[in-house]
Amino acid sequence: MVQEAGATATPVDAVRAAWWRVVLTAAVLAAVWWPARPGGTDGFPLSTYPMFGYARAPTSVVETALGVDAAGRKHTLRPVVIVGTSHPKLALATVKRAVAQRRTEGLCREIAARAAALPEEERPVAIEVATETWDTLAAFAPGAEPQRRKVHARCEVSRGG
Amino acid sequence: MAGERPLERGLLRLSAWLAPVMPASRLALVRVVVGLYACVWLAMVAPDLMRRSALGAAKFEPLGIATWSGMVAPGVVMAVIGVTGGLGIAMVLGLGHRGLRRAVGPAFAVGVLWLASYRNSWGHLSHGEHLMVLQLLVLAVAPTTDAVRVRWPGGKDVRAGDEQQPRESERYGWPLRVIMLVTVSTYAIAGLAKLRGAGWAWISGEAVRLHVGHEALRMTLVGESGWSLGAWLLPHAWVFTAAAVGTVVLELGAPIGLRRGWVGIGWIAGLWAMHVGIWVVMGIGFPYPLSGVAFAAWLPLERVLTPIRRLIGGRSSDARR
């Protein structure tokens, strides 16, 4: 991208420099636009930027892990308990992949081990890895419950921790 | 230039647009701002990066140049973070002998590229770092250290060769224009993706509304409730229609941001406002554009130098020229 200063450039030099500039700029833009071609795939650092760029069904299917208390009530777990980091999307992606790869038993035990270290008042008695189906637009109404719930794995949380 | 053929005339005109004459200090300050942002980003993500590095091979799905390196030991990641951080500080300050300085930018950009690729290699691809890395890669090969750099106190003046460089030149305008073109391209691609994915129905707002509801629900189910206005806005469909129309117009029209003057600046301000809206409604913050750093190439940053020079007494090398 380094060019000679144009103050003393001859016309031939100026045309050569212009070609150089145009071709290099076009090459950079071609690379940036390359994933946007039909059939292009998302990646890093070149991307299709697909965020929210597709139609959604009116129902939301979410794979998640929940804590169950002694009374059988379900409670959400924080990402640090689910995956060991504070990143919520990484927690969701980890559960989703475990469900897809049928590795929910192992993930459930990992989560239970982390949950065992929680303070007594926050500690669930069990962990459930589940797929829940919700009516997306009605999910935040008072008392809303999932339309369907499929539990893939359930494991007890150690009380010693 | 009399006697030019039409092709040459057109080529020179295009080249002049691609490389407007700009002050060396503007490009240098974009280096400082983007480099500083990347250093802060590195410091912020380092703990998370280390935790991810320990997640285990079963969760590793390599992306970008992390595919070439594969999974590495957490100690290696820590070493790369340390070296890249040092390079970043050197890049921001413009430290080093002339030849060394030219190597610092590319080395820092490659370090950030690998770390960001590695961080995105654990099952979730974030789209918050693409533009930072792309702009950093352009700056890495640009003559960004011809102005605004720190000189060792009492050290030998190593800038002799640079004194021949003009204070304003098209060589400083070209990288800035490329950064602008790359930036507006990423927004136009995002706008195109929406129309490709859901067609013109996307602008009815229903798709956005369902996305917002879905994201709010997902976050609630991992204990992150109360993080945005999304759930509260769901009953108000018209808000999402307005947001969808505004988003598509701003993204597909992003090349208007290349226009000079207030039209261009206004469009860029619109894109920034769009990110504020996404943050408030969906709780998804894209820190690079939200901070304004993504749009630094548009701004006459060199104007801040005069008051800064007065403040620090002209210690920067640029002040001596």
Our measurement of the CA-to-CA distance between the termini of chain B, rounded to an integer number of angstroms, reads 32 Å
Uncertain stretches of 5 or more adjacent residues of chain A: 1-7
Could you tell me the radius of gyration of chain A in angstroms? 26 Å
End-to-end Cα distance of chain A, whole Å, is: 59 Å
Percent in helix of chain B: 55-70%
What does this structure look like?
The complex is a heterodimer of chains A (161) and B (321). Chain A has 161 residues and is an alpha+beta fold. Chain A has two domains: 1-54, no CATH class; 59-156, no CATH class. Helix content of chain A is 32%, strand content 20%. In chain A, a hairpin with a 5-residue loop joins strand 1 (59-68) and strand 2. Chain A is elongated. The termini of chain A are far apart. By secondary structure, chain B is mainly alpha-helical. A two-stranded antiparallel sheet of chain B has the order 1-2. Chain B starts with 5 loop residues before the first helix and ends in a 9-residue tail after the last helix. Chain B is globular. Chain B folds into two domains: 22-150 and 304-321, no CATH class; 173-290, no CATH class. In chain B, helix 5 (98-119) packs antiparallel against helix 6 and helix 6 packs antiparallel against helix 7 (170-198). Chain B has 13 helices and two strands, in the order H-E-H-H-H-H-H-E-H-H-H-H-H-H-H. Chain B has helices at 6-18, 24-53, 66-69, 74-93, 98-119, 130-140, 170-198, 206-221, 230-233, 237-252, 262-282, 287-290, 305-312; strands at 22-23, 168-169. At the A-B interface, helix 1, strand 1 and helix 3 of A face helix 1, helix 2, helix 5, helix 6 and helix 7 of B.
